[in-house]
Amino acid sequence: MGDIPLPLQVKLLRFLQERVVERIGGRKPIAVDVRIVCATHRDLNQMITDKTFRDDLYYRLAEVPVHIPQLSERSGDAVLLAKHFLSRFSREMNPSIKGFASSALTAIDQWGWPGNVRELENRVKRAVIMAETKFVTVDDLQFDIVDEEDRLLNLKAAREAADRKAIGRAIARTDGNISNAAKLLGISRPTLYDLLKQYEMHV
User: Fold this and answer.
1) Which CATH number does the domain 155-198 belong to among 1.10.10, 1.20.58, 3.30.70, 2.60.120?
2) Residue 134 has pLDDT above 70, yes or no
3) Is 127 exposed, middle or buried (0-12, 13-18, 19+ CB in 10 A)?
4) Which helix (H) or strand (E) holds 31?
């Protein structure tokens, strides 16, 4: 929605208000009953401030807004999605591929994914095509993980961030199996449940 030019925004707003369309070359309005589902990667509130998006159109559309966090904000999701894409692309293009090398999964988990899910999908697809072994490696994914210095000085905040990251990775690696994730983390199953509840993380 954020890419629609202002003249077209006016037409869309009129359609949403009147619920009628006209055929090209026609003169008789045709009533339609539709539901509008739209999405954007842009900050519409800022665009409204900048006068590049109509506020009346925004409020007409935003009846049930759903905010989907970026991939980098969803711990563990990158690995789960990467496994899904690998399964699909290997079946279609390279059946010899059996999975990811452990180092590749770590790299996927640590990457910032500035291109979000589309970048992840494209990297996995390219890796499946180019891989020379049965397991996709870091080199196949064509990015380098740079270790960044931990800047969290508050010990409680640093501990929580580390816990969240480790738990997210463990759950992703074990495909959501709590018992196996707890073993991977070196803690008991009840302890993992307590941490999930404490950090309000959902499996």
Assistant:
1) 1.10.10
2) yes
3) buried
4) strand 30-31
